[in-house]
C-alpha cells in the first residue's frame, strides 16, 4: 500500500470523525457550518494535485469554486422539498438539482472572476430563500453508526474522484468535487430522526459557511502552480481557518428567519 493511498484511507475519516463529534456537541446549525469545511473537497483536490500535477489541481480548484453554486442549489432544493416530503424524495430532488446545475455549469466557459461572482451570488441568494425555522432546542440525536456511515461515504468519494480525475478532466472533476457527501449523510439522518426543521437548520449552517470553502480553493487556484501542492494547501488551510472563525461568529448571530 502506497503512502498516498494510506492517507486517503485515514486522513479524511479522521477529519470527518472530529467534525461529527463537534457537531453533536454544538447542534445542527454549527454542524452544518462544520460540514462546509473542505474536509472532503480539500483532500480530493490535494490528492489530485499529488497524482496529476499542479496545473491539473489549479484547474480543478477553479472549477470547484463555481461548483459551490451547485451545492447551494442542492441545499435549497432539499430544504424546500423537506417542507412537504420525507427524506427520500427530498434527497433525490436535492441530488437532481446538484447534477442539473453541474451540467449547466460545465457548458459555460466561466473565467475565475465569473466563477467567484457566481458562487458568491448563489450562496447569498440561496441563503435568503431558505425556509424559516425556529431556534434549536437541543443538540441532534442520531445513531452512533451514522458517523461511521459518513466516514465511509467520504472515503468512497475521495477514492472515486481521484480515480476518475484524469478521464473527467480538471474542469468536470472540479465541478463534481463539492458533491454533498458528508452533507447528504448528515442531512438524511437528521431529517429522519429529528424532522425537516432540523435538516433545514443544518443546511442553513452549511450555506452560511460555504463562502469559506471558496476562499480555500481560491488560494489553491492562485498559488499551487507557483508554490507547489504542499505549500499551497498549507496556505489555503490557514486562510480557511481564519475565514471560518469569522463565519462561525456570523452563524451564531444571524437570525434563523427566512422565507417559508
Provide a descriptive summary of the structure in words:
It is a single chain. Helix content is 82%, strand content 0%. With 260 residues, the protein is mainly alpha-helical. The chain has one domain (3-131, 144-251). It is globular, with a radius of gyration of 17 Å. The protein starts with a helix and ends in a 9-residue tail after the last helix. The relative contact order is 0.21. Residues 256-260 have low confidence and may be disordered.
In short:
It contains ten helices and no strands.
Distance between the termini: 51 Å
Query: From N to C, what is the helix and strand string?
Result: HHHHHHHHHH
Query: In terms of structural class, how would the helical and strand content be classed?
Result: mainly alpha
Provide the domain count. 1
Shape: globular
- The radius of gyration computed from the alpha-carbon positions, rounded to a whole number of angstroms, is 17 Å
Proportion of helical residues? over 70%
- Main beta sheet strand tally, sense and closure: none
Spans with pLDDT under 50 lasting ≥5 residues? 256-260
Provide the β-strand percentage band.
under 5%
Enumerate how many helices there are, as a single number. Answer: 10
